[in-house]
Specification:
The protein is α/β, with parallel strands linked by helices. The protein contains 13 helices and 22 strands. A hairpin with a 3-residue loop joins strand 1 and strand 2.
Length: 479
């Protein structure tokens, strides 16, 4: 009987308002019979630990408190009784407005190094939308009910929207709409601070925002109502004027869903049975969250969409990051130097079928140049489509063409090859033997990638039989 291997995966979400940690356990097994090529799959995924929900620590309005984040992660690992060495995959992501802080990238790199062997170290807003849609249960609901579902993950600084139809992702949309666009002294209407989305919305309504100034309760609800209508207009595929001002990227790709779910911190408030009516309660968290949640509920009532409660709200993104980001490569892989892994954010180029070796080399060089910056030459992952075939002679010629191109583009960098067919080990061995000078070679198979996708590759698992990977399509569309 094939052995079952268990590995730990972690999701760490450092958001505009809150920071959370989730630890999951993934079970890996060879599901093929004993006389065929191994087929190693993740057969079970389960969340085994959820952290407390922390307010994201900041040193000031432009700087994340790295020490504060580090203390949270260390404390939660201890509570979960896991060590960083046991974490083999997962994601640490900085979401919402926090991703725009001056030291965000440095914090990501430092946390990913101290917290385990992470595959994903960061995610843009479109990938965040997809991850949250997986973590909330929207994709599963869409698949099981055969219906179109929009999941809007409404956090402190942004709303990340993913639309699924029959479980398949159809669109992602993002905007600067969230509960912490304006911060107040809790239980008062006194403004402590505000960020771009709050200022844009207030200006749009003719409301003057100033630190230390008290807003009227009617003004707070006017801002919340305007934000909610902007959000719903985006989901309905007809963004209004304010929505266009708050947009992050293109808003034109949406399909109107039959059902809608909300996750995130504000999302959780939407499903509270009754709003708190105590005087000052709309700012009890020191932000717009309660008022925004109330106005979103009102705005949904004016549409034909069915409001559905998700499986997860505030934990949706972090559970999506910890459980749903990782898949496994094929089982006939080749990794010459495991110590060079993990790789993060490696762009991919897709080869077109050709029997002309010179054309193949020229294509690799030409496409690789698009990812090179001044003196920094990047050799992207090279995707070999099934159209190339799998005969020994053709693979040998192909690896020679790749080696010729790699020597011209980046003579010292590792060569990463992604094979759609199950020829990873053969390609890797032949490529390594063709090298004029030694360099790391990583060849993995049974993956499908498009030109312009990015791939993260983790350290080998299951006695080196597979590697965990995350394929990141940075912009999703209807096509």
């Amino acid at each position: 009987m094939s052995k079952v291997e268990e590995i730990f995966s972690a999701g760490i979400d450092i958001g505009t308002s809150t920071t959370t940690v989730v630890i999951s356990k993934l079970k890996i097994k060879n599901v093929a019979s004993g006389f065929v090529v191994p087929k190693i799959e993740i057969i079970d995924k389960a969340v085994i630990y959820r952290s407390d929900v922390y307010f994201t620590p900041l040193l000031d309005e432009t700087t994340i408190d790295f020490k504060g984040i580090e203390e949270i992660v260390k404390k939660e690992y201890e509570r979960a009784k896991v060590s960083p060495d046991e974490i083999k995959t997962g994601a640490v992501i900085i979401t919402g407005d926090t991703a725009r802080k001056e030291n965000a990238q440095n914090v990501l790199e430092a946390i990913s190094k101290m917290a385990g062997s992470f595959v994903v170290a960061t995610a843009g807003p479109h990938l965040e939308a997809y991850i949250a849609g997986l973590g909330s249960g929207a994709a599963t609901y869409s698949n099981e009910k055969h219906v179109s579902v929009s999941n809007a993950d409404v956090g402190g600084g942004t709303s990340n929207i993913a639309v699924f139809d029959d479980g398949k992702l159809k669109a992602t949309l993002c905007a600067d709409i969230g509960g912490r666009l304006i911060r107040f002294e809790p239980w008062t209407y006194k403004v402590q601070s505000f960020i771009r989305g709050g200022e844009v919305t207030a200006n749009y309504l003719g409301i003057k925002l100033e630190k230390g100034k008290n807003l009227l309760k009617t003004e707070i609800f006017a801002i919340a109502e305007a934000l909610s209508k902007a959000l719903i207009s985006i989901i309905l595929g007809n963004p209004n004027e304010l929505a266009q001002k708050l947009a992050i990227g293109d808003l034109s790709q949406c399909i109107v869903p039959k059902c809608i779910m909300f996750s995130g911190g504000v999302g959780r408030l939407i499903y509270e049975e009754e709003p708190d009516t105590e005087e000052g309660s709309i700012t009890r968290f020191g932000d717009l969250g309660p008022a925004l949640a109330e106005e979103i509920k009102n705005a949904v009532k004016d549409t034909s969409m069915k409001l559905v409660k998700p499986a997860e709200t505030i934990y949706a993104t972090v559970i999506g990051a910890g459980i749903h980001t990782t898949e496994l490569s094929g089982s006939t892989i080749y990794v010459s130097d495991p110590e060079v892994l993990p790789f993060r954010d490696l762009p991919a180029i897709y080869l077109t079928a050709s029997d002309d070796l010179d054309k193949i080399s020229t294509e690799i060089v030409s496409k690789a140049e698009k990812f090179s910056v001044q003196d920094s030459k990047i050799l992207p992952a090279i995707v070999i489509p099934k159209a190339f075939g799998n005969s020994f002679a053709k693979i040998k010629e192909l690896t020679q063409a790749i080696e010729n191109a790699a020597r011209r583009v980046a003579p010292k960098s590792p060569i990463v090859v992604i094979c759609e067919d199950d020829i990873g080990k053969a390609v890797g061995n032949l490529l390594r033997n063709n090298l004029s000078k030694p360099r790391p070679v990583i060849s993995i198979d049974q993956l499908t990638m498009k030109e312009g996708d990015y791939i993260d590759i983790g350290k080998p698992l299951y006695d080196g039989g597979v590697v965990p990977v995350v394929i990141k399509t940075l912009v999703f569309s209807n096509s």
